[in-house]
Design a protein that fits this description.
The chain is α/β, with parallel strands linked by helices and 283 residues long. It has one domain (7-250): 3-Layer(aba) Sandwich (Rossmann fold), CATH 3.40.50.720. It has nine helices and seven strands. The chain has helices at 16-27, 43-48, 63-77, 100-128, 149-169, 207-216, 225-237, 249-268, 270-274, and strands at 7-10, 31-36, 53-57, 82-85, 131-136, 174-181, 244-247. A seven-stranded parallel sheet has the order 3-2-1-4-5-6-7, with helices on both faces. Strand 1 (7-10), helix 1 (16-27) and strand 2 (31-36) form a beta-alpha-beta unit. The chain starts with 6 loop residues before the first strand and ends in a 9-residue tail after the last helix.
Length: 283
């Protein structure tokens, strides 16, 4: 089905931001490969947009499914113009409370699966010398918080990978945007959230308090997934898309506060930092 209309491949479309983004993309006349681990949750997309939508099974940690979805997208639509790596979830635990299998599973989805799918899509984009990759990170990819450290680690890793990728592919006509939402009204803090089987009382007022706060505001977050989807599409359509796209006032305020504190700290210890170099006359 060859056409000049851009093709989006979006992961994690069963609910939340991924679902709203897929809906908005299709409503605006784009074509889309809409994916989820359970295809029953996305069959309505194909029913409403039979010519513009391909619904496909995709667990980003499954290598064969990654290869199959890229092959299907290229066979059906001829190419992939925009990749949105949205699939992911949270796990809340103090570092000492963290369960190794849960932490590694989250890294497989939030980081390694994302990187592998990106590698599978890049050859086509390189050949055509055009494309846009959007990696859905979080304000938690820029700011570490008690009880969120392992999730922060997956998103901090994604930030570094994405910035490096952006520099690698810019000369090839491929753009990269890191999407950094604050708290949005999705299932991230509800059904999708994972927590350790056992908690340690000594962390009740730090990691425990953060965990209770996050679980307590599920369904009450100020961020609107529909408006977030609109912002993402506008960023893709912009003549010069951003590398970093913060979403929501809380995310913006938190990052601005961190930058202010970080700058002040750098200045306070400026002489100590500079003193670590060899003296100029010895270089």
């Amino acid at each position: 089905m060859i056409s000049d209309v851009p093709v989006w491949l979006i992961t994690g479309c069963s609910r939340g931001l991924g679902r709203e983004l897929a809906l908005e993309v299709l409503k605006r006349g784009y074509r889309a490969v809409v994916t989820a681990r359970d295809t029953a949750t996305i069959q309505d997309f194909a029913g409403r947009y039979p010519d513009a939508c391909l619904a496909a099974e995709l667990d980003v940690t499954n290598a064969e499914q990654r290869r199959a979805v890229v092959r299907s997208a290229e066979a059906w639509f001829g190419r992939i113009d925009v990749l949105v790596n949205n699939a992911g979830y949270g796990y809340l635990a103090a570092l000492e409370e963290g369960e190794d299998d849960e932490v590694r599973a989250m890294f497989e989805t939030n980081f390694f699966g994302l990187a592998a799918l990106t590698k599978a899509v890049l050859p086509g984009m390189r050949t055509r010398r055009t494309g846009h990759i959007l990696n859905v990170s979080s304000v938690g990819g820029l700011i570490g918080l008690p009880g969120v450290g392992y999730y922060n680690a997956t998103k901090f890793a994604l930030e570094g990978l994405s910035e490096a990728l952006a520099a690698e592919v810019a000369p090839l006509g491929i753009r990269v945007t890191i999407v950094e939402p604050g708290p949005f009204r999705t299932d991230w803090a509800g059904a999708s959230l994972r927590t350790p089987k056992a908690s340690i009382p000594d962390y009740a007022e730090t990691a425990g308090a953060r965990r209770r706060a996050i679980q307590g505001y599920s369904g009450k977050q100020p961020g609107d997934p529909v408006r977030a989807a609109d912002a993402i599409i506008k960023a893709v359509e912009a003549p010069e898309p951003p590398l970093h796209l913060l979403l929501g006032r809380i995310a913006l305020d938190m990052v601005q506060a961190k930058l202010k504190t970080f700058t002040a700290e750098m200045e306070r210890f400026r002489d100590l930092s500079l003193g670590a170099d060899f003296p100029a006359e010895e270089r």
